[in-house]
Amino acid sequence: MAETNSNKIRAAILGASGYVGAELVRLLSRHSNVEIVVLTAERRAGQPLAAVYPHLGDLGLPDLLKIDQVEWGGLDVDVVFCALPHGTTQPVVAGLLHATHHSVVDELVAETTEDVIAALPKSVKVVDLSADFRLRDVDVYRQWYGHAHQAADLQKTAVYGLTEFSRDAIAKASLIACPGCYPTTTLLPLVPLLEKALILPYDIIVDAKSGVSGAGRSEKEANLYAEVAEGMHAYGLGGHRHAPEIDQELSVAANEPVTVSFTPHLAPMSRGILATTYVKLADGATAQDLHRALVDRFEDESFIRVLEDGAVPATRHVRGSNFCQMNVFPDRVSGRAILVSATDNLIKGASGQAIQNMNVAFGFAETTGLEAGPLFP
Amino acid sequence: MAETNSNKIRAAILGASGYVGAELVRLLSRHSNVEIVVLTAERRAGQPLAAVYPHLGDLGLPDLLKIDQVEWGGLDVDVVFCALPHGTTQPVVAGLLHATHHSVVDELVAETTEDVIAALPKSVKVVDLSADFRLRDVDVYRQWYGHAHQAADLQKTAVYGLTEFSRDAIAKASLIACPGCYPTTTLLPLVPLLEKALILPYDIIVDAKSGVSGAGRSEKEANLYAEVAEGMHAYGLGGHRHAPEIDQELSVAANEPVTVSFTPHLAPMSRGILATTYVKLADGATAQDLHRALVDRFEDESFIRVLEDGAVPATRHVRGSNFCQMNVFPDRVSGRAILVSATDNLIKGASGQAIQNMNVAFGFAETTGLEAGPLFP
Amino acid sequence: MAETNSNKIRAAILGASGYVGAELVRLLSRHSNVEIVVLTAERRAGQPLAAVYPHLGDLGLPDLLKIDQVEWGGLDVDVVFCALPHGTTQPVVAGLLHATHHSVVDELVAETTEDVIAALPKSVKVVDLSADFRLRDVDVYRQWYGHAHQAADLQKTAVYGLTEFSRDAIAKASLIACPGCYPTTTLLPLVPLLEKALILPYDIIVDAKSGVSGAGRSEKEANLYAEVAEGMHAYGLGGHRHAPEIDQELSVAANEPVTVSFTPHLAPMSRGILATTYVKLADGATAQDLHRALVDRFEDESFIRVLEDGAVPATRHVRGSNFCQMNVFPDRVSGRAILVSATDNLIKGASGQAIQNMNVAFGFAETTGLEAGPLFP
Amino acid sequence: MAETNSNKIRAAILGASGYVGAELVRLLSRHSNVEIVVLTAERRAGQPLAAVYPHLGDLGLPDLLKIDQVEWGGLDVDVVFCALPHGTTQPVVAGLLHATHHSVVDELVAETTEDVIAALPKSVKVVDLSADFRLRDVDVYRQWYGHAHQAADLQKTAVYGLTEFSRDAIAKASLIACPGCYPTTTLLPLVPLLEKALILPYDIIVDAKSGVSGAGRSEKEANLYAEVAEGMHAYGLGGHRHAPEIDQELSVAANEPVTVSFTPHLAPMSRGILATTYVKLADGATAQDLHRALVDRFEDESFIRVLEDGAVPATRHVRGSNFCQMNVFPDRVSGRAILVSATDNLIKGASGQAIQNMNVAFGFAETTGLEAGPLFP
Q1: Catalytic site residue C178?
Q2: What ipTM, to 2 d.p.?
Q3: Which residues of D touch C321 (CB under 8 A)?
């Protein structure tokens, strides 16, 4: 289905063997403005994608390569999606953004990259789905990820790609750092409410529930079917890496430092994130005010569905789509409200939002390639 | 998204509150040649579809009606999809095909309809997803469904819509009886092999496994989550209603009477049918011959994927798509082979095949509206 | 297996066709001190239990009766377990406690029962698993359940049966009101911490996740497999009936009115409750102090497992058992801690705790009949 | 709970970190005649069992050892359960049965063991749950397992422990080879019917469906939750290692060589095996005759439940128990019948049957430690 077409932009997907990479392939292979020209997967290099993902057969795609097998020179790549493990993306992106200008493929895996990046190239755009460029403060990055940032200068140019809030910057960016799945789901309802000062910027508690695909396709005992099915547990208690990312964006919205209490849980499902967020109302504000503010903020958005009064967001009603459902409920405890938001972690929380960002960056209609409705049941 | 468009055909969906109806809405609402103008649901009449299926909100669709509330007169309907319970469709379809010519809405639920149908109307096409018109022999129908067929004359005009095998007839039909989910999955590999006499027409054993959505959205104890999850069982042992339907088509293919042993099982999953079919090889034939015959037969088909040697079909690799995966394996018992085929029961086994048939009937490209790839994980 | 044995107490189970009733049968039929002599189920009366629950066949149990078919006179029942729907138990229990003294079976379903109960009988004990006698304040009951309490005098005699906190009262009680599944799971860690004033009595937020069996075996669309599987949602937002029950007990523990924010969620699993509770530390207290307090409080308890530092409770690790796992974690937000507790909602949250209470009430070893360890995977 | 008790036999469990090992621990730790004195797990040696299986905490068990760390000398072990990976058990068992006589611990992992085994020791009994001693013909073993049998002499002494058919031999055996989960489930209904010549010994087709725990706790991509949930597929097509094991026992029962067509499937559930077996009736025999034969054969068995006419076996109705449910159904194809049998693969298909065999071998009541009923839902 993906034929050569000179009117299409040419895309590379690095890390195509993970679930996020597979979703990028599924969605981009049917995107009317995109042609996939490179797929990489370090451990599966040399294989056709269908050997890794049988559901992605018959799409006419190139076989998998190792990153350093890619001969960027003649490919005329317009956009690179990086769906690589956290911590490995910084040198790759640094190399990429340099290499495409100077054909210095060797730099791709350079261990120190800061000095080779003189100016950001304009001709290629990088849409990164890892955590490597999400945190603006590289000290915070080091604190949470345990090593120094390897492309600190480049970090300064990265745009945090929560699409609905950063279109202008995304349109101009060379490097778009797509938000994590938890931050996406959590921030979408919180940011407008903090911006409008309808809720207090402290005592914000986020209790999030995620499907297993958020942990990737890695072969860990904890992710085995028999370990996950028919049970629930919390994890990352008091210290999940998505917390500082949420703090960062909430602090901008509130215009003062915000520290959230954030606790993720693993639910026995493949896809979906549900965030239940407990907030305190600003003086005089009601849950109804919050609802109205969200309706106003998002009424022109294609992918944000603020539900009608009383309707409850559910991950099953966004599964397979780029939608985020949300709603606000008054708490029985006076002065409190409860926000509930739901996304498909692999789509709006990853590949879908990445494509949405690409659409903005290249001037395509924002919904292109993301038209599919939720798949239920 | 569904705007008035005079270039589109106008579709009615009867029984939109079931899972099959919901899938018809999901797919047709994004079909470039179709506008949905009527949705019915007897018990939910008066409500917006989003009240029944929150994932189908914001599509700009008409509210739900009762069938007898539909004023067919001014609607200019081109195609009617009937996703009604088995046994209730015959009078409705008889009424429809008559009423649209003669504006006799009263006839719609007429108890005896045979005499009111003089000639089949040409202006509207009915795509029926119930079992009501699948069995050509109305005596067989009575035997398996427990009551006399209520539109025996109309039955004679019905085309059994296993698309890949009946395109010419479908193109000309007014009434297309879409195959059941089990028959679709079972027949696709079996028919070509019987036609080519590569397998014996007896001792065919079909062991099928289905997800729960095949039982519809009805509120039965047996379909509760806690009853279904984490367990398996067989049902309809020795007498499932899809058996005579399979027999009928296999007998045509084999050109002699075939009686299959067919045993369905309920698997703890929402979607998907896997059919494992045990066959005896014709004298001199090998499993490899069977594989080659299937490859030859289906290589030009858009939705049939005969896998490479050794690759195993899986329901998860067709979920959410109109694809059928299949393959052939040699049995360790000499002279035997094993066929495995997989579909999404709600799509290729119901709504997708119905739309595929509509595409054929109206001359659209057969894949229109069915482009979505499988959703995995 | 359940033979007549004059050394055993004789038990009736009212409402044996629900999941809680079935678990009572499963556990009591193997309890060395109990003989089951009556099983009721209004809609399935006349059938053997195995027709309703095939896994409970071959136990030598009496067939199902309607409650008013039970001839209490000659049965010499010692204990009655009521696993009836909320709101229907009050007249039954009132009748029971009266009828066993006066042989007035007619009173069993009397609509007004207050005047027939002069003194509580001593010879029979009622272990109620419904919500009908949990709320001490009948006005609160009316507010949350929408009708006047039908046995207000009897309510005064009911003991709230959170076993670990009420053994003395349970030992003497005629009517034990077993806590709900959510309250059990939530209260176990919270009560000791409030009693010791280690946490603040306000801003307590309980985010609970439950398996579907908590909704019973009723044939509701919302509980169908295809509706529940692979998704999550919150429900009862801002007003679940277990909230006032939690408030009631926390207020006793804190010795001042407590109002919790309580939000339950439906998780795609049959059994299990996970409660994640966000609390504020009392001045000077640390998460470690909380952990030590829980260890101290529960170290002699057979069914409460305060996990080691850092270990995370999981519903799968208590499934099929009467255990409650719990732990305390410091929050990254200063001054906060997170409690996590897990139970099997049908056992420690219902039938198991009921039997534990019966053991206390009749002077049996508390673990009798509840020795089974968790079933994993 | 497991206290030192000189009246109990002393058990070692080799391979306690797998699912089968964990089930052995769960069941034996509550067995009134057994004390667990050794637990081994190569990769987790040095850890408490609760670190590997949190649900098995607080049982007072010894920490995990490597096999060669066990000092068998002073342990007075009476029974050794081997739950080791296939192919690794032969030298261990050979060493064991030798070492306990001669205190030659070094032999335990000897690569050639045939010559060190002079006579079978009587003082220790080995209950092996691997496939290493199931196949009587070591040539067949080599053919299916790809290497020469490493303890061929010992193989001759092994008893195939399908309890219901081999009690006398089990009582006298030093080495009991417990049947695989598929063979157990398949053989139980087939053996009596072949013995009585009620079915034909050819054209037997076994379509089996298993939960994921049958694949063990190994960290394979194919067993990840997101790979398994909500889907089904066949595997081992035409060549699963359990086929020759089934053949072997059926051939004995039929008194002539039998070759089954056996196809396993992976179902999205943790536990349970359902076998649907398609058979041809012997001349004159009816499905009813088969049912009666099974009832007669098994009516005194504690763990075999031949269901009433028409009732359908289900894995969920045996889950967590040592029961096997079975029934017979007439096929619609004349001369055919369908057998359906269900077990919990980890219990009757592994640990439960092993304990049942141990009970027989040591003269305990056969149901000891296996009294738990099925856990549903």
Answers
A1: no
A2: 0.93
A3: 55
